[in-house]
Design brief:
Elements: H1 2-27, E1 50-54, E2 57-60, E3 65-71, E4 73-82, E5 90-92, E6 98-104, E7 110-119, E8 124-133, E9 142-145, E10 151-152, E11 158-162, H2 169-174, E12 176-180, E13 186-192, E14 198-204, E15 213-218, E16 236-242, E17 246-251, E18 256-261, E19 264-270, E20 282-288, E21 291-299, E22 310-318, E23 325-328, E24 346-348, H3 350-359, E25 365-369, E26 373-376, H4 390-394
Parallel strand pairs: 2-8, 10-16, 17-25, 20-26, 23-24
Antiparallel strand pairs: 1-3, 3-6, 4-7, 5-6, 7-8, 9-11, 11-14, 12-15, 13-14, 15-16, 17-18, 18-19, 20-25, 21-22, 22-23
Length: 400
Amino acid sequence: MPRIRALAHARVRAAVVAALLTSLAACSSGAGPGRSDDKGPSGAADGPVTVTVTPKGTKVPAGRPVTVTASGGRLTSVTVTDAEGRRLAGRTAADGRSWVSDRNAVPGAAYTVTAATRTDGGAAKSTRASFTTAAADKVNKVDWRPGAGATVGVAQPISLVFDRPVKNRAEVEKRLRVTTSNGTTGSWGWIRDWSGGDRVDWRPETYFKPGTKITLNAQLNGTDSGPDGGWFVRDYTTTFTVGARQIVKVDLDSHQLTLERNGETVRRIPVSGGTPGGDKRSWHGTAVLMAKEGTINMNSETVGLGNAYDKMVDYSMRLTWSGMYAHAAPWNARFFGSANHSSGCIGMSDANAAWLYGQVRPGDPFEISGKETKGVVAPGNGFGMWNLSWAEWQQKSALR
């Protein structure tokens, strides 16, 4: 009996050892001779990365962003430059699989794209690609006010007048960025300029606060303005500052002009406005001083009044495109302070005109009232947008 027990115990031990060996073999890689299933640090296959750049080719349409995508890996950096070395900034997606430029590709440009990638297995690679865009068949240009570095009055808007029609108004308006030093907000409004061209202006709800600094960045390069309008091929920028709060109040019923500065009356001046009845009446409402033009020739034929006058006029302050000025009018002296007897302008003595000319600046509002006037200054006739309510003005935005 003892011998039988010893043999039985030996057989049990042998079975346990065999089972353990089998278990250890099951936990190994199982790779045979000459094979390796090592998939790298992430456990994924370390295959090649495919990079795709859009657009591609030569003379491709402009006006679209540049996109870069990676298949089989991730983008670690993307650089897009034009022939002059200017970079096109962009953003990489959170998963690292795609990159999109912030701005559109512009017309008539050559771009080089360099994309650095890393495979899921950790291998790094650099890919280069290039493409060119077709030149613009039509170019849309911009005339803007006010000029950079100007100090202006509290009613000065930003105003952009376009050479050619703008049908893609919403797309253009998205590219116009306004920042102010004190958080002042405003709205763009599309109007017809007195010249007949398309125009967009920006104004706040009420007059600016003195000291406000305003910056416009019109990032229009590479934007299509629409049929018959053509492409914008440059950006525009201007920064200006608002000066003292000056308001010129003109009462054509009492024939008095009053300059107020920071809420205080500075001076009252007797004036004579447009002759009642007919086309010689003055406009009323808010007109904004557009420019101080000094001594100029005024010819009635240029404003549709026949040959009523043709003379040199001193201290000319333009209020509308249609030809309404405040200026010296010594030939009308007997009517100052007593009657309106001009061809539509606001006239005063040489001395008073010289003084006012030295006090006001472009952007100062002239608030004109009177019963014998021919209507309100239109938004496109100078800067007449202040004659619209805030709600009316906001409705002129293409983004409403």
